[in-house]
Specification:
Organism: Grosmannia clavigera (strain kw1407 / UAMH 11150)
Protein name: FAD-binding domain containing protein
CATH class of the domain at 464-701: Mainly Beta
Family: Belongs to the paxM FAD-dependent monooxygenase family.
Helix content: 10-25%
Largest sheet: 11 strands, mixed
Pfam families: ADC, Cupin_2, FAD_binding_3, NAD_binding_8
Radius of gyration: 37 Å
Number of strands: 49
CATH topology of the domain at 464-701: Acetoacetate decarboxylase-like
GO molecular function: FAD binding; lyase activity; monooxygenase activity
Length: about 900
């Protein structure tokens, strides 16, 4: 008979559509039923895959061509790398007869001792034990765990025996049985024939093996053989020049498992038979006639019913393990020679990696890409161990220079679940380039005020705020000393400037689990920043922002470059007064008091600090270089548009109270009282207040209004075969809006990739249908784009440029078009913009209603300016879109 190390059925895996329908809703959310998976072959790898995949919530069907009536009886190694994976799913092999591997002894053919290794200390290197287990016992437990309704994971996998596969339709995800029955699935584990390069066949390795069991009690009862069976957990190897005998115990040390490797021609067997081909004792004795007589006596104790001849087959490395929704695992992907005892273990590793890749929530549309990832995870390791096994099986004369410990360390020092989960995590993170990363990076991207851990945008729908601010006249010459760069300047040349101290209390913050925090900052108004290109931005400079909670301090410093520090902030609010006190560890250093507050019309405030009509907040980011004092690793100005912060904190003002009676005071204290803040507070205490211009308390609350503009329908005309006209149903009428990371919604309503467009045979429709699932960039340099953009209330888009000719029309609301020079125009419904490659941004001027614009983008020749070609800059500025 012919087989490989694990003796496993050749496993593959098909992932298809349950009941013939796509798994997952049209909005991209995974269905709770999981994927439908067919596993062809219910050996060790197939059953382990069924266990792991059911625990991920998938529906599994196992197809086994045999009746399981004559399951193979022998022992297998459960080395630490595989044993830990079994334990992870709750299978402890020692509970059904496995014994530990405790020592190794090596003899020559005359039973002269060559090496003895006690493994007690060596095995402490590994986090899981090394066991020797009876194959039948392992297989029965795997089958029970895979198919029992009482085990973890629903629904229970279905095991169908006597189900021989006749064909597989790779495109449709359909398995055809010999009976003619057709089964559909999202994932199919199949044999090699349906995989590119799968015509590679197994080939003789030049060796065959007897495999059988001997009762340890019988060996101990025989005076000549007792010495070989005296120690528990002992693996013994007898080496001849071109043959060897391997013996180790299993079944709680009650049985001795033998693998007797020898030249193939001495026990020629039928290649088409299975690996249970019977052997006989006379032939066994003949093959090892030159070995020690005591060993021959031990071989003569072979249980006749278990004595089999096994041709050892090898196979060249397959170029691929996957084809669309089809994948291989176990022997189907990498048949092993038995010399490392890793065949079953690697099949278990394959199954585990597959479950990590196809974790709960994966959509059917992503299966093919994820199966390729499964191959990437497993391919090198499995093929390397396969090559190790070849080398370990060489005859004595060819074994010079082999380092068996190198093999052992590589084999055992690996946990495929830990490895695969980490690879999948990083792969999924890489597919979301706009995730926020900050220290500590060992744990992945961080959730924060602008997005969830998964990268979904937050919209501050239930947040509330109360802001108390005091705006005052002060010294421009003193405030400008707080500018960290000469690129900052005041708009006015006068020596009087305006600034505000403002304190906000936030609550209902989704990103803080519904909680909130307080912040207190100095805001310097009327500031301009001159970019390197000479463009001038208009805003408010924030030299300092105190906060009383770690999470927003860290996220604001690292994600936005905000100059945040910690202090305690206490607030006392009464009917007509508002008092703020700032301190550090019991030392109070700041006080702001507003008295005689009177309710006013909230429509009179813009909701921004100081009520300034500017674009946003300037700050200055500085990160020191490690090990080099006084040197910056990162140093630059930052700009946060008001609309960006409005996505974190609701900016809908609902109540406002005003007063002219307000006071601000700061006390510098000393280094003992403020050991980390004295230098900061002393500068705040120096700021003169010539006059209070105004003071107010503003209340705002969510939610942001829902989308108040109707869906868009498209009516696409076409021609029938006879030339008559009609409307095409090739794509849905409703435009497919996609929400970007910043909350803006894009709808690619139509696109072409040639100019002029190719209308014959609906070629342009085919192009657009492809773009619907494989989104193009903002513009297409060989064709045209028709796009609709819906902007949430208060939205300010990042500054961006496309080198294209863009026609923009406001369909709903009012939108402000702003250029990087500071020039701006207000566009009302029906107004048109002709955008000619300039750097620009859009702002929805309404704080309560959505706005909608339609764009037609056409390719343009390179745009030259002073001999330099301008380039697109949308990759970083339009998050979540190519």
């Amino acid at each position: 008979m012919a087989t490989t190390d694990s003796g496993d059925a050749a496993n593959g895996l098909v992932i298809g559509h349950a009941n013939g329908h796509t798994n997952g809703h049209s909005n991209g959310q995974a269905t709770p039923q999981g994927l439908s998976i067919i596993i062809v072959g219910a050996g060790i790898g197939g059953l382990m895959a069924a266990i792991c995949l059911r625990q991920e919530g998938h529906r599994v069907t196992l197809l086994e061509q045999s009746r399981f009536a004559n399951e193979v009886g022998a022992a297998v190694h459960m080395a630490p790398n595989a044993n830990g994976l079994l334990r992870r799913v709750g299978i402890f092999v020692e509970k059904f007869g496995a014994n530990k591997m405790e020592r190794m002894t090596e003899y020559d053919e005359k039973s002269t001792s060559k090496r003895e290794i006690e493994l007690g200390e060596a095995n402490k290197l590994w986090q899981h034990p090394w066991h020797l287990v009876h194959r039948i016992h392992l297989h029965e437990e795997l089958k029970r765990r895979a198919t029992s309704p009482d085990e973890a994971g629903t629904p229970t996998p279905v095991l169908r025996t006597r189900s021989r596969v006749a064909d597989v339709d790779t495109a449709a995800g359909v398995v055809v049985l010999e009976s003619g029955e057709r089964l559909e699935a999202d994932v199919i584990s199949v044999t090699r024939a349906k995989i590119p390069g799968g015509d590679i066949k197994t080939k003789p390795s030049g060796k065959s093996a007897f495999r059988f069991l001997v009762s340890r009690e019988a060996a101990q009862a025989n005076a000549k053989t007792a010495k070989f069976a005296s120690k528990n957990g002992e693996l013994i190897m007898w080496f001849g020049a071109d043959r060897r005998v391997i013996m180790y115990p299993c079944d709680d040390n009650r049985q001795l498992n033998f693998v007797c490797v020898h030249p193939r021609e001495e026990t020629q067997v039928d290649n088409v038979a299975d690996w249970n081909t019977g052997g006989n004792k006379a032939k066994l004795q003949e093959v090892y006639r030159g070995f020690d007589s005591d060993l021959l006596a031990l071989l003569d104790l072979a249980e006749a019913g278990s004595l089999k001849v096994w041709e050892l087959l090898d196979m060249d490395v397959l170029p691929s393990w996957t084809n669309g929704r089809l994948a291989l695992l176990g022997d189907a992907a990498h048949p092993f020679l038995p010399h490392q005892g890793q065949g079953a273990g690697c099949a278990i590793e394959d199954a585990t990696a597959l479950a990590a890749v196809l974790h709960k929530g994966v959509q059917a549309a992503d299966v093919a890409e994820r199966l390729q990832l499964y191959q990437d995870i497993r391919y090198v390791r499995a093929n390397k161990i396969q090559e190790f096994s070849r080398k370990a099986g060489r005859d004595l004369d060819d074994r010079a220079g082999l380092d068996m410990m190198e093999y052992t360390n590589y084999n055992f020092g690996h946990d495929e679940w830990d490895n695969a989960v980490d690879v999948v995590r990083k792969w999924e993170w890489k597919r979301k380039p706009h995730l926020y990363w900050r220290m500590p990076v060992s744990f992945g991207p961080f959730p924060g005020p602008r997005q969830t851990f998964e990268g979904l945008p937050r919209t501050a729908t239930q947040s509330t705020f109360v802001t108390a601010s005091v705006k005052f006249k002060t010294s421009r010459t003193m405030l400008q000393n707080l500018f960290p760069s000469v690129s900052f300047r005041f708009k006015s040349p006068g020596t009087v400037a305006h600034a505000s101290f403002s304190q906000t209390t936030l609550n209902g913050m989704e990103w803080l689990g519904g909680g909130g925090y307080r912040h207190l900052g100095l805001y310097i108004h009327g500031v301009e920043y001159v970019t390197k290109s000479g463009a001038v931005l208009d805003g408010t400079f924030l030299p300092l922002l105190f906060e009383n909670l770690t999470d927003p301090i860290v996220s604001g410093r690292e994600e936005l470059g905000m100059p945040k520090l910690y202090c305690s902030i206490d607030v006392w609010r009464r009917a007509a007064s508002y008092r703020i006190q700032a301190g550090w560890e019991g030392a109070s250093f700041g006080s702001i008091v507003l008295k005689d507050l009177v309710e006013a019309d909230p429509a009179s405030t813009k909701g921004t600090i100081g009520g300034e009509d500017d674009q946003g907040l300037f700050a200055y980011k500085y990160i020191p270089r490690v090990g080099e004092r006084g040197c910056a690793d990162v140093e630059h100005a930052t700009f946060v548009p008001h609309a960006e912060e409005a996505r974190v904190v609701s900016s809908r003002v609902v109540r406002m109270f005003e007063t002219s009676k307000a006071s601000v005071s700061f006390e510098a204290l000393d280094w003992e009282s403020l050991p980390t803040l004295h230098h900061v507070v002393s500068r705040l205490a120096e700021i003169p207040i010539y006059e209070v211009i105004g003071a107010k308390v503003v209340e705002g609350l969510g939610p942001i209004p829902p989308k108040d503009i109707r869906p868009i329908r498209r009516f696409i005309t076409t021609h029938a075969a006879d030339g008559t006209t009609g409307f095409s149903d090739a794509v849905p009428e409703e435009a497919p809006f996609k929400t970007l990371l910043d909350g803006v919604q894009f709808a690619l309503c139509y696109a072409s990739n040639t100019f002029p467009a190719q209308l014959s045979d609906d070629a342009d429709l085919d192009v657009y249908k492809n773009y619907m699932t494989n989104l193009p960039g903002i513009n297409i340099d060989t064709g045209s784009v028709l796009r609709v953009v819906d902007m949430q209330p208060g939205m300010l888009a990042p500054m961006h440029r496309t080198v294209s000719l863009d026609y923009g029309v406001v369909l709903e609301g009012e939108v402000e078009l702003m250029l990087d020079s500071g020039a701006k125009r207000l566009m009302r419904r029906g107004d048109i913009s002709i955008q000619r490659g300039t750097n620009h941004t859009w702002r929805n001027t309404s704080e309560t209603s959505w706005a909608r614009m339609l764009y037609v983008l056409l390719p343009a020749q390179p745009l030259l300016f002073n001999g330099r070609a301008l380039e697109d800059n949308t990759e970083e500025t339009i998050p979540g879109h190519k």
